[in-house]
């Protein structure tokens, strides 16, 4: 793909930019070292936490339900979401020359939008799974079978791929003939549009509309799903209302943490530089870190699976 991209750029009459310069998060050396330590630790926690979930779901026969199948896919997606930009950002804290090749920049653009939009759809699928389990329990096994879950997960990745390709096609055709400094720690569509030697108003509008269709639609579907869940629970069981409220509030927290930065970066940009950087870090580090905590540590079955895993593979005593 990278050779095709470069060949396409060679065909334009504009100067080909072979690399971009990333300005990063901060300029202070001391703060960069501090951020390096903090973000490295958080990235290791992200990878280890989500890896634990994948191992538990794939090895424990008690976690064969659709909910845990979808949770494992969410963890897999989160690992990719964080790995797309975080390792580069961490390494750049120790480098004077924070550059990224043109092809590397294009890959970041593609995977940023591919993974993010795919995860949005996957969160909707997970909300739908909970809706069927709570609102239509007698039909749950029929509706949410393994085949349908697999189709829904593949659909989320297909939508993500199409969304990522559309952004890549938009960006790769831009004429870059001058500035190449990106005032952030990664390449993204709005940042690259600013560097293009064209009037970017129409392109910015097109990008905002495209992102809005995916983000706002998924966000509305999520709110509808969780609203129906809470209404059903409150109507049928007061005893289960508090538990459902606790579970849904945790899931809604993940949704808000994931969607709000995306909305303020792409759909309704505030155009405040430091805030955009904060949202970008929050979106690529905090969300993948919080998902294992919220979906796993609050889940009794996952805790029991961890105990069984410790007893079986690590030889640790399992407390009942």
Count the helices. How many?
Answer: 12
Residue-averaged pLDDT: 82
Structural class: mainly alpha
User: Helicity level, as a percent range?
Assistant: over 70%
Alpha carbon gap, first and last residue: 53 Å
Task: Output the CATH topology.
Answer: Rhopdopsin 7-helix transmembrane proteins
CATH class group: Mainly Alpha
Strand content: under 5%
- Number of domain units: 1
Please report the total strand number as a whole number. Answer: 3
- Low-confidence segments: 5-15
What's the helix and strand layout?
Blueprint: H1 2-10, E1 19-22, H2 29-59, H3 66-83, H4 86-92, E2 99-101, H5 102-135, H6 140-143, H7 146-172, E3 181-182, H8 189-195, H9 201-236, H10 238-267, H11 273-297, H12 300-313
Parallel strand pairs: 1-3
Antiparallel strand pairs: 1-2
Helix pairs in contact: 1-5, 2-3, 2-4, 2-11, 3-5, 3-11, 5-7, 5-9, 9-10, 10-11
Describe this structure in words.
The chain is mainly α. It has one domain (2-313): Rhopdopsin 7-helix transmembrane proteins, CATH 1.20.1070.10. Helix content is 76%, strand content 3%. It has helices at 2-10, 29-59, 66-83, 86-92, 102-135, 140-143, 146-172, 189-195, 201-236, 238-267, 273-297, 300-313, and strands at 19-22, 99-101, 181-182. The protein has a three-stranded mixed beta sheet with strand order 2-1-3. The longest helix is centred in the C-terminal third of the chain and has 36 residues, at 201-236. The termini are far apart.
Short description:
By secondary structure, this protein is mainly α. The chain has helices at 2-10, 29-59, 66-83, 86-92, 102-135, 140-143, 146-172, 189-195, 201-236, 238-267, 273-297, 300-313; strands at 19-22, 99-101, 181-182.
């Amino acid at each position: 793909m990278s050779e095709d991209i470069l060949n396409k750029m060679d065909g334009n009459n504009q100067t080909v930019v072979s690399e971009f310069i990333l300005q990063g998060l901060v300029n202070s050396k001391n703060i960069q070292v501090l951020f390096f330590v903090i973000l490295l630790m958080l990235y290791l926690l992200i990878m280890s936490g989500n890896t634990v979930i994948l191992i538990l779901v794939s090895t424990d026969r008690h976690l064969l339900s659709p909910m845990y199948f979808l949770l494992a896919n969410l963890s897999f997606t989160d690992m990719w979401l964080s790995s797309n930009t975080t390792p580069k950002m961490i390494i750049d804290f120790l480098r004077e020359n924070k550059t990224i090749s043109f092809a590397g920049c294009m890959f970041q653009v593609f995977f940023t939008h591919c993974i993010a939009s795919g995860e949005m759809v996957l969160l909707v699928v997970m909300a739908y799974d909970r809706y069927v389990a709570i609102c239509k329990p007698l039909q749950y096994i029929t509706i949410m079978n393994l085949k349908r879950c697999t189709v829904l997960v593949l659909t989320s990745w297909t939508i993500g791929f199409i969304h990522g390709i559309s952004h890549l096609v938009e960006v790769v055709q831009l004429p870059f003939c001058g500035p190449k400094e990106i005032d952030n720690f990664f390449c993204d569509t709005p940042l690259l549009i600013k560097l293009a030697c064209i009037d970017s108003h129409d392109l910015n509008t097109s990008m905002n509309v495209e992102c809005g269709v995916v983000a706002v639609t998924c966000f509305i579907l999520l709110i509808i799903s969780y609203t129906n869940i809470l209404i059903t629970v409150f109507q049928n069981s007061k005893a289960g209302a508090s538990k459902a409220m606790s579970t849904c509030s945790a899931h809604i927290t993940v949704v808000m943490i994931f969607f709000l930065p995306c909305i303020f970066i792409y759909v309704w940009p505030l155009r405040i530089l430091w805030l955009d950087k904060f949202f970008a870090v929050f979106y690529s580090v905090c969300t993948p870190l919080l998902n294992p905590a919220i979906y796993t540590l609050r889940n009794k079955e996952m805790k029991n699976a961890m105990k069984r895993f410790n007893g079986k593979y690590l030889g640790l005593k399992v407390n009942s």
